[in-house]
Amino acid sequence: MSQKILIVGAGFAGVWGALGAARVLDSAGVRSSDVEITLISPQPELQIRPRMYESEPQKMAAPLLPLLEAVGVKYVEGSVDEISVRDKTVNVVSADGQTRSLAYDRLLLTSGSKLSRPPVPGLAEHAFSVDRIEDAVLLDQHFASLMKQPATPARNTVAIVGCGFTGIEVATELPKRLRDVFGADAQTRVVVIGSQDEIGPDLGANPRPFIAEAFESLGVEAVLGSGVVAIDADGVRTASGARIEAKTVIWAGGMRASTLAAQVSSRLDPLGRVEAAEDLRVPEARDVFVAGDVARVLTDDDGHYALMSCQHAMVMGKFGGYNVAADLLGLPTLQYRQPFYATCVDLGEWGAIYSEGWDRQVKLTRAEGKERKRMINTKWIYPPAADRVEALAAGDPLATFG
To answer: Which residue range or ranges hold the FAD/NAD(P)-binding domain (predicted)?
Structure first.
């Protein structure tokens, strides 16, 4: 009977984890009949979440079946709702509601994260998001429906709740999108609302002047220092009592790790991520490894922890895939390290900011930054071609550092 590696989730960590695991088996000359790698996800596609703020979000998915077939990874359609580390099984629910149990010898959990949705009155009923393709498509459809309504200030106003990375990118993309919807002469308003006192609080001081310049250039407003406490069909109310009339409210209030993380470990950080060992192993479940948004792990020797970002998920996935396969074969695992860190923030028609290092030293702005963002969003974060040699090479964690 073959041994089994299960990978739960087809986000950035899961896809590159599958490539990493397949590469180890290939290098060791292990046949797929002896060790079977299976990727489990609701759809055989990678949703390009970093692009969900753009127009035509329905196009932001990369098919995975040809790639998985090229490297000998099986695919199972469904959502995992239960993991038993004692029995070493996962419960998979298919789209039609059918359930089945799959056994594993090693498990790589890469189930990602979801938009945090606190119990703010009206959030579930009236707010949109760009968390998934389905959410972004609903927002697009909503914009199209607004064209049938009389032109009013509220109809032409969008309120974005959240002044972090996602909120900034959504806000700066909207002026052009709203002109496309309502016409070039329409008087539109885009308002970013945040409880923090500064825009982009986690981005640091260096990019902030450029963000402010882009906001001013694009006419984006920032209402800071008071969070949203209620949402309805006609706008939002903040804790300070301010009322903003808006027919469109977009929630961008941060992320939380998949709840599956709590099924493999009791040691979770405030974001719900597993406190993983340096090789991404779960200390409480020795046959389980984690990668991507469900893992809290150091990236370097200077005390920096991985963020919920595709750049960390992709590389972490390679290490996680390598380690589940290596551990199964009795080979040494690798310590996850990713010392290089960069940030690229899209700022709509103004351009973009590209910075390097955890202190975010700005390297490129405006058109040059935009070109770097375009390369990241359309080239670098997409899976490799369905060519076995190219795909296996893409799964090498050590090649990341040249």
So the answer is: 4-317
Q: Give the list of residues 6+ apart from residue 379 with CB closer than 8 angstroms, or none.
A: none
- Same domain? 139 vs 175: yes
d(CA 28, CA 118): 47
Residue 388 CA to residue 68 CA, distance in Å, equals: 9
> Per residue in 165-192, pLDDT tens?
999 999 999 999 999 999 999 999 999 9
220 and 193 in one domain? yes
CA dihedral sign, ordered 240, 241, 242, 244? positive
H or E stretch at 81: strand 79-84
Closest CA to 103 of 117, 120, 89, 121: 89
**Number of CB atoms found within 10 A of residue 142's CB:** 13
pLDDT in tens, 140-169: 999 999 999 999 999 999 999 999 999 999
Contacts of 35 (CB under 8 A, 6+ apart): 2, 3, 4, 5, 25, 325, 328, 329
DSSP bridge partners of 284: none
User: Within the chain, how many helices (H) and strands (E) appear?
Assistant: 10, 26
With 0-12 / 13-18 / 19 or more C-beta atoms within 10 angstroms meaning exposed / middle / buried, residue 91 is: middle
Cα gap 385→387, rounded to integer Å? 5
- 289 lies in which domain range? 3-115+256-339+384-401
CB atoms within 10 A of CB 228: 27
Question: Quick one: 393 and 286 in the same domain?
Answer: yes
Q: 214 and 234: one domain?
A: yes
State pTM to two decimals.
0.97
